[in-house]
């Protein structure tokens, strides 16, 4: 797989999954801007040296990488990141929004500042990034956007107490993916999402894990960012070097919105009586 001549942005790329994505893209020939605010394990603070050190390490491998430090919670920071890529490399072909934040807060204790923090990085950041990247992606011959969701949000099996704000933000990225898949179709802008499972700082892991390694997620992201990926609106789940793709697909024979082609019911009693069939339909 060859990314020579392509320019990519990877957010949250100084460590963990983002660093692995950026390194592999650059190793395959891409020019890469790695963006990271350098926050601590709780998501607090700013440390430019974190991403600068990551960029230097990659540059020492002979890779074309530049660093960016900026707060992506607002439009100005996102615009600055896009302009950084254009200033350094003159184009943009790939946008990977990996940056995220995990915080636990019981629903009874929910407060606006906590929720806003999750929304800023998971909802506003991808929207602002795509807004300012869009006109540049329209000029690319193979424009690709990769967002990030989570199994913790998508499946009740894996839900955890205290993750309401996190789950809301990760599900929101799927709505953004679906909307932009349609909006980008005419220009060939493909938008997909990765749902990664990897032991990183988010798990409280600082050393080298023996399983669930970040680099085992990376091949899936590289594929989604490549010209070989011809699909849009898919969620690629990745864990332990295994991959499965899924998407929200309509049932057969539906004529939306007038006919769902499924179980009829005229009152709540009939819904209750048909509930098992409704769940299966």
TrEMBL record:
Gene3D superfamilies: NAD(P)-binding Rossmann-like Domain
InterPro entries: NAD(P)-bd_dom_sf, Peroxisomal_Beta-Oxidation, SDR_fam
Enzyme class: oxidoreductase
Protein EC: 1.-.-.-
SUPFAM superfamilies, per database record: NAD(P)-binding Rossmann-fold domains (SSF51735)
Keyword field: Oxidoreductase
Pfam families reported in the protein's UniProt record: adh_short
Molecular function per GO: oxidoreductase activity
Protein family (similarity comment): Belongs to the short-chain dehydrogenases/reductases (SDR) family.
Listed name of the protein: SDR family oxidoreductase
């Amino acid at each position: 797989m060859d990314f020579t001549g392509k320019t990519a942005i990877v957010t949250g790329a100084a460590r963990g999954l983002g660093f692995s994505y950026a390194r592999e893209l650059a190793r395959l020939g891409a020019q890469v801007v790695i963006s990271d605010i350098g926050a601590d394990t709780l998501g607090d603070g700013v440390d430019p040296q974190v991403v600068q050190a990551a960029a230097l390490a990659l540059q020492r491998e002979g890779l074309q990488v530049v660093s960016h430090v900026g707060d992506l919670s607002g439009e100005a920071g996102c615009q600055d990141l896009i302009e950084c890529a254009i200033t350094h490399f003159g184009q943009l072909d790939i946008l990977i929004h990996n940056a995220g934040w995990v915080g636990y807060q019981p629903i009874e204790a929910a407060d606006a500042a906590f929720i806003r923090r999750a929304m800023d990085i998971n909802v506003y950041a991808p929207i602002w990034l795509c807004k300012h990247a869009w006109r540049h992606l329209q000029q690319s011959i193979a424009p690709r956007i990769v967002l990030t969701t989570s199994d913790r949000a998508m499946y009740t099996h894996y839900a955890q107490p205290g993750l309401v704000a996190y789950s809301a933000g990760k599900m929101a990225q799927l709505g953004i993916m679906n909307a932009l898949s349609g909006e980008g179709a005419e220009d060939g802008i493909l938008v997909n999402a990765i749902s990664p499972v990897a032991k990183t700082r988010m798990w409280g892991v600082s050393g080298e894990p023996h399983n669930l390694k970040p680099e085992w997620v990376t091949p899936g992201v590289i594929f989604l960012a490549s010209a070989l990926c011809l699909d849009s609106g898919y969620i690629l789940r990745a864990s332990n070097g295994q991959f499965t793709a899924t998407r929200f697909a309509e049932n057969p024979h539906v004529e939306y919105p007038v006919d769902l082609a499924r179980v009829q019911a005229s009152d709540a009693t009939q819904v209750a009586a048909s509930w098992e069939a409704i769940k299966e339909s």
